[in-house]
Specification:
Layout: H1 3-18, H2 23-28, E1 34-41, E2 45-46, H3 50-60, E3 65-68, E4 75-76, E5 81-88, H4 89-120, E6 126-128, H5 138-147, E7 161-163, H6 165-171, H7 174-182, E8 191-195, H8 198-206, E9 211-215, H9 219-226, E10 234-238, E11 256-258, H10 261-264, E12 271-275
Parallel strand pairs: 6-11, 7-8, 8-9, 9-10, 10-11
Antiparallel strand pairs: 1-5, 1-12, 2-4, 3-5
Helix pairs in contact: 1-3, 1-4, 3-4, 4-5
Protein name: Probable nicotinate-nucleotide pyrophosphorylase [carboxylating]
Pathway: Cofactor biosynthesis; NAD(+) biosynthesis; nicotinate D-ribonucleotide from quinolinate: step 1/1
Subunit structure: Hexamer formed by 3 homodimers.
Length: about 280
Amino acid sequence: MNKLIVKEKLEHFFKEDLGELDITTASSIMGNASGKAFLKAKEDGVMAGAELLSIGYQIINPSIRVHVLIKDGVAFNKGDIIARFEGNIQDLLAGERVLLNLLQRMSGVATMTQKAIKQLDDSSIRICDTRKTTPGLRIFEKYAVRCGGGFNHRRSLSDAVLLKENHLLACGGIQKAVRTVRNEVGHMVKIEVETTNEQEVLEAVNANVDVIMFDNATPQEIKHYVNLVPKTIVTEASGGINLESLPSFKDCGVHYISLGCLTHSVKSTDISFLLEEEM
């Protein structure tokens, strides 16, 4: 992740959460009180977002010491201590909720991504995400997909051309759409076309696109479509695929399977932030 962008977003999130003053903490805890805290996993998962802890507390109070015990991309078990902190208690609590929310969300995405990879059980096919991310959190959620062993599709609309149903309808078909795009974009921009039947697959092949997406196709249909596509063109399956149906796509022959559920249907991992009791 770009640390400058991450820092900017965290600053915005902290301002949103803290408002003018954390009334509870300011009125109940002395300003000079110091202590220790830790993060504890309440269920199994895959870590994503651990590096945010140091960046976040650097913003709140650079003197807070952060010791990460479980790195991003590493699996953890229920009861594991993920990180430890030491410093001003008011400042520890000021950053707690924002950082914990992000860590739980990102770890949930990473955990689901790893589960999807295991469900598919096909190392020849890469699992990737979509643009169905939470507004404002895309940089975090797509990073989390990578922590879980997956790959990113487009990070934004400016990454590549993806001609979908509405584009093709507005342009008058695949051939016209691809021809129009090639007259507008540079040679570094890849072109992907969404297809829904054999005729569209053949049109995309004839247009010599870079990537062909088989949208809402069954595993049997995909196996047939793949045989129509030269090896120089990357293939992708998408639409209507979830963790339950994923195993049926094993050995279907595509290069990528993109899953919106990795980010739009994920359950945050349960992690607690706790102050240590004084001995």
